[in-house]
Amino acid sequence: MKLYIYEHCPFCSRARLALGLKDLAFETVVVMEDDAATPTRLVGKKAVPILEKPDGTHMGESLDIVRYVDTLGTPIFDGPPEAALDAWGDAAWPLALKLFIPRFTEGDFAELATPSVREAYRQREERAFGDLDALRADSARYIGKMNTKLEALVPLLAGRDAVGISDVKLWPILRSLSIVDGLQFPLAVRSYMERLAAAGKVPLLFDQAR
Questions:
Q1: Which band of pLDDT confidence, cut at 50, 70 and 90, is reported for residue 162?
Q2: In sequence order, what are the residues at sequence separation of 6 or more whose Cβ sits closer than 8 angstroms to the Cβ of residue 34?
Q3: Which of 12, 47, 120, 154 is the most buried (most CB within 10 A)?
Q4: Which residue ranges does the record assign to the GST N-terminal domain (predicted)?
Q5: What is the radius of gyration, based on Cα positions, of the chain?
Q6: How far apart are CA 50 and CA 192, in angstroms?
Q7: Contact 139, 99 (CB under 8 A)
Q8: Superfamily of the domain at 2-69
């Protein structure tokens, strides 16, 4: 199997985490951010992740990929979702975007390997999210709000050892936030992040925090 990704992309992280947790063999292919031709050829639009299945066909949409790979071997994501974790993720997502999107445009990611690609990506994100410099300037305010949310996540993770579909949605948000310097990840949250990163073989972004 092959998985076409952007390294920064939280939706790609869902598929990467699921494949890693299932311990399935696959090749990672990083698509350059300005390469619309490859994903369009494979699934008809510029979007990742894309999974090339063993039969040579391709599929997109992160959660569809997760559900497919869960049919390979013993299922681990087929239980009911955790409503509290899903609700936390839904509530945190708009705020998280304000923090990690400006930093993604500065990050060390293979899909942004040339200055022209990086600038085109930055401009596209500005069209989607507004002035990234202004978001950066408001970082302290957003970080304070997110730190409060991270504290509220602690009791939701208490005693959580198993993994399920809600973890596949939650963990990529936390991974994305690990690029934000100044966030205070409570021990329980940091331990959860690191445990799934190791088990899923997907690195966190603390070494790029800015």
A1: confident
A2: 116, 117, 120, 121
A3: 12
A4: 1-77
A5: 17
A6: 27
A7: yes
A8: Glutaredoxin (3.40.30.10)
CA–CA gap between residue 141 and residue 21 (Å, rounded): 35
Provide mean pLDDT across the span 184-203.
98
Where does CATH 1.20.1050.10 sit in the chain?
A: 83-203
Tokens of 60: 């997109």
In the CATH scheme, what is the code of domain 83-203?
1.20.1050.10
User: Could you tell me the sign of the dihedral formed by the alpha carbons of 21, 27, 31, 37, in that order?
Assistant: negative
Q: Are 138 and 107 in contact (CB under 8 A)?
A: no
- In one-letter notation, the amino acid at residue 76 is I
Residues 6+ apart with CB under 8 A from 87: none
Read off the pTM. 0.97
Give the separation between CA 162 and CA 96, rounded to whole angstroms.
25
Q: Smallest Cα–Cα separation from 203: which of 193, 192, 191, 190?
A: 193
With tokens 């190791």, the residue in question is: 198
Task: For residue 197, give both structure tokens.
Answer: 């990163």
Q: What are the CA-CA distances from residue 135 to residues 3, 8, 66, 68 (Å)?
A: 32, 18, 32, 37
In whole angstroms, give the CA distance from residue 69 to residue 15.
9
Summarize pLDDT for 118-156 with one digit per residue, the tens: 999 999 999 999 999 999 999 999 999 999 999 999 999
- Which residues lie closer than 8 Å to 129 by C-beta, 6 or more apart? 97, 98, 101, 135
